[in-house]
Amino acid sequence: MANLLLELALAIGAAGTLLAVVRLVKGPRAASRAVALDVLTLITMPMMAAYGLYAGRQIYLDVALVYGILSFLGVTALARYADRGV
Amino acid sequence: MNIVTWLNLVDLLVCLVVIISAIGAAVHRNLLAATVFAGVVSLAISFLFLRLAAPDVAMTEAAIGAGLSTVIFLIAVRRTEEVEGKDQ
After folding, report:
1. Chain A touched by B59 (CB under 8 Å)
2. Nearest C-alpha neighbor of B10 from the set A16, A27, A59
3. What is the pLDDT of residues A27-70, one digit of tens each?
4. Residue A63 contacts B where some CB pair is shorter than 8 Å
5. B21-48: per-residue pLDDT in tens?
6. CB neighbour burial string for B12-49, b if at least 16 within 10 angstroms, e if fewer
7. Helix, strand, coil % (nearest 5) of chain A?
8. Which long-range contacts (CB under 8 A, 24 or more apart) does B70-73 make?
């Protein structure tokens, strides 16, 4: 049952990654590409957590935490640049 | 399909994302978009490091690649020019 839920999470994450990559490649403006980067980050974090659950290692959850904090910093810098420059 | 197959599929997809984003970062004329592509490359590489059972390398890549280098690239783009070859 737990494996079924993990498979479902991986499948949904893969579908979301595909859609976000389409927006990343097509995106007419740089701002839509920044949103695609944010979406990819938000998809990658729970996939890291799901893989940590599958592998049974706690350190993977720490990686997901550090990843979320620092990529938030990057997306915030992009948004600030789009607003008025760094 | 069992879960190992799904994990391999996700790995393949992430590798494709790395290749597409690297090509986009190399060929794009708008340097802001190229910065975003470079951020996506380091994001996906960090996930691949995690899959290769190297969580410390993945954490460092996430800190340096996704956090620091994006900000430094943005500062550099602002100090120079946003579209490559605009004033030549």
Report:
1. yes
2. A16
3. 788 788 888 999 999 999 999 999 998 888 889 999 999 888 88
4. yes
5. 999 999 988 888 888 899 899 989 999 9
6. ebbeebbebbbebbeebeebbbbbbbbbbbbbbbbbbb
7. 90, 0, 10
8. B70/A74, B70/A77, B70/A78, B70/B35, B70/B38, B70/B39, B71/A73, B71/A74, B71/A77, B71/A86, B73/B35, B73/B38
Cβ atoms of residues A75 and A41 within 8 Å: yes
Give the CA distances from residue B51 to residues A26, A84, B12, B15, B79, in Å, rounded to whole numbers and listed in that order. 28, 38, 12, 12, 37
B13 → chain A, closest CA residue: A14
Residue matched to tokens 């920044």: A34
| Residue at A71: amino acid letter | S
Q: Where are the domains of chain A?
A: 2-84
Q: Can you tell me the ipTM of this complex?
A: 0.87
B32 close to A (CB below 8 A) = yes
